[in-house]
């Protein structure tokens, strides 16, 4: 058992809450720090919740002084690509300046270990697939740039200030807690699998496949879907790993297997046992035809391997959460 304390910014959100559960199961004391603008207080079940904003230096100082964390898990970010194009200022303010404020207050408090929730969006349009950590990083939207700026800060702070960190670059986070305690709830929902489930179960919310003319096996885009439970397990391994390491270390998190959007729609229809065919829409600007991770580094150095990221498990856990949420809303 660890006995150490992790303070999780954005721990009331989708990936953050799943990671809080995984750290608690591994014996860590978990403290969630979240402004609840996009997270949910009911998802905080494994330790105290501090309602605060990462742009608020005083709130961070108080949290560090009270809980004296050994490690920071940093998930507090806006993550809608289209919104970032329309309102880049809120992405640079929250994701980039907020992260700077967090690092500044970590230094003041003497906290020197951090796990950063990063993204494959820092790579932009891939030059080769699968994508490894040495692939050129050149984002195509403000969301990706706001995350890459934080990675650059982390690399520089490691050299200048001895602040050691891991950046975990997710591919497509999907699925929900296998025990049904927490799940996915975004407003608006932009992830393919919950949208496909809603479309399969209701004619009122048809699922749209953006693009059917990509150079892929069925014409729809290929993505690397990774179960959020596997992501959470990787964070625990990375947290234990960085406690004994120095420097800045990026890792891809994905399965190395690609699934087309139309294959997702078919899997959802089969598992839901209800089919309303998806609509075919035009490609979205900047959508790469294929994003697949090379996660060999995470396997080699962290000892991490996805265990529950087959598409059927991802869809079944997402569907179970969808039905549980719908039943709760009907009460």
| Overall residue-averaged pLDDT value | 94
CATH topology of the largest domain: Rossmann fold
**Mind describing the biggest β-sheet?**
7 strands, parallel
**What structural category do the secondary elements indicate?**
alpha/beta
At the first level of CATH, the class of the largest domain is: Alpha Beta
CATH architecture of the largest domain: 3-Layer(aba) Sandwich
What percentage of amino acids are in beta strands? 15-25%
Strand order of the largest sheet: 3-2-1-4-5-6-11
Q: H/E series, N to C? A: EHEEHEHHEHEEHEEEHEEHEEHH
* C-alpha termini separation: 39 Å
Shape: globular
Number of domains: 2
CATH superfamily of the largest domain: NAD(P)-binding Rossmann-like Domain
Please tell me how large the radius of gyration is.
19 Å
Number of strands: 14
List unreliable stretches of 5+ residues. none
The helix content is 40-55%
**Helix segment tally:** 10
Pathway: Carbohydrate metabolism; galactose metabolism
Keywords: Carbohydrate metabolism, Isomerase, NAD
Catalytic activity: UDP-alpha-D-glucose = UDP-alpha-D-galactose
Cofactor: NAD(+)
Describe this structure in words.
Helix content is 41%, strand content 17%. It has a 7-stranded parallel beta sheet, sandwiched between helices. Strands 12-9-14 form a 3-stranded mixed beta sheet. With 331 residues, the chain is an alpha/beta fold. It folds into 2 domains: 198 residues, NAD(P)-binding Rossmann-like Domain (Rossmann fold); 107 residues, UDP-galactose 4-epimerase, domain 1 (Alpha-Beta Complex). The chain is built from 10 helices and 14 strands. Helix 8 packs across helix 10. The chain is globular and about 55 Å long. The longest helix has 22 residues. Helix 5 links the parallel strand 5 and strand 6.
């Amino acid at each position: 058992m660890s006995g150490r304390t992790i303070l999780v910014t954005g721990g009331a959100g989708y990936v953050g809450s799943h990671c809080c559960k995984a750290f608690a199961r591994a014996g860590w004391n978990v403290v969630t720090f979240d402004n609840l603008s996009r997270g949910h207080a009911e998802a905080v079940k494994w330790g105290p919740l501090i309602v605060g904003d990462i742009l608020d230096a005083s709130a961070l100082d108080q949290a560090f002084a009270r809980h004296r964390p050994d490690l920071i898990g940093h998930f507090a970010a806006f993550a809608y690509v289209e919104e970032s194009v329309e309102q880049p200022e809120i992405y640079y303010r929250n994701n980039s300046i907020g992260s700077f404020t967090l690092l500044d207050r970590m230094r003041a408090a003497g906290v020197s270990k951090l796990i950063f929730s990063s993204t494959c969006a820092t790579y932009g349009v891939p030059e080769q697939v699968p994508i490894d950590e040495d692939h050129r990083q050149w984002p195509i939207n403000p969301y990706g740039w706001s995350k890459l700026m934080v990675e650059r800060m982390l690399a520089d702070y490691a050299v200048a200030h001895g602040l050691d960190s891991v950046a975990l670059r997710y591919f497509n986070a999907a699925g929900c807690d296998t025990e049904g305690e927490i799940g996915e709830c975004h407003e608006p929902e932009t992830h393919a699998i919950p949208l496909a489930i809603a479309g399969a179960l209701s004619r009122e919310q048809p699922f749209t496949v953006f693009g059917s003319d990509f150079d892929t096996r069925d014409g729809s885009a290929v993505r690397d879907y990774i179960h959020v439970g596997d992501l959470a397990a990787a964070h625990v391994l990375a947290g234990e790993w960085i406690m004994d390491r120095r420097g800045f270390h990026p890792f891809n998190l994905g399965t190395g297997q690609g699934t087309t959007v139309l294959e997702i729609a078919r899997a959802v229809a089969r598992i839901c046992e209800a089919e309303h065919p998806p609509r075919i829409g035009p490609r979205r600007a900047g959508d790469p035809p294929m994003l697949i991770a090379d996660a060999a580094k995470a396997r080699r150095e962290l000892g991490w391997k996805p265990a529950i990221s087959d598409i059927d498990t991802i869809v079944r856990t997402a569907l179970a959460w969808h039905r549980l949420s719908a039943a709760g809303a009907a009460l």
